[in-house]
Amino acid sequence: MKWRLTSGVSCDKKLSPELKGKFYRVVVRPIMLYGAECWPIKNSHTQKMKVAEMRMLRWMCG
C-alpha cells in the first residue's frame, strides 16, 4: 500500500483530526512497520522512519 493511495481518507478536510489519527495508527503505521522485527536496526533506520512518519503526519494535517 502506498501512502498516496490513502490520501482520500487522510487529506479529506471533512474528517476530524481524531479520525485521521486513528486511521494512521490502525492502517498506515502497521504497514510501515511490517517485518521490522527482522531488520537489523540502526540509528539511521530509526531516523528515516521518524522522518517518514512526521512527513506523513504533516501532510495529513494540511
TrEMBL record:
Entry superkingdom: Eukaryota
> What is the protein's name according to its record?
Putative ovule protein
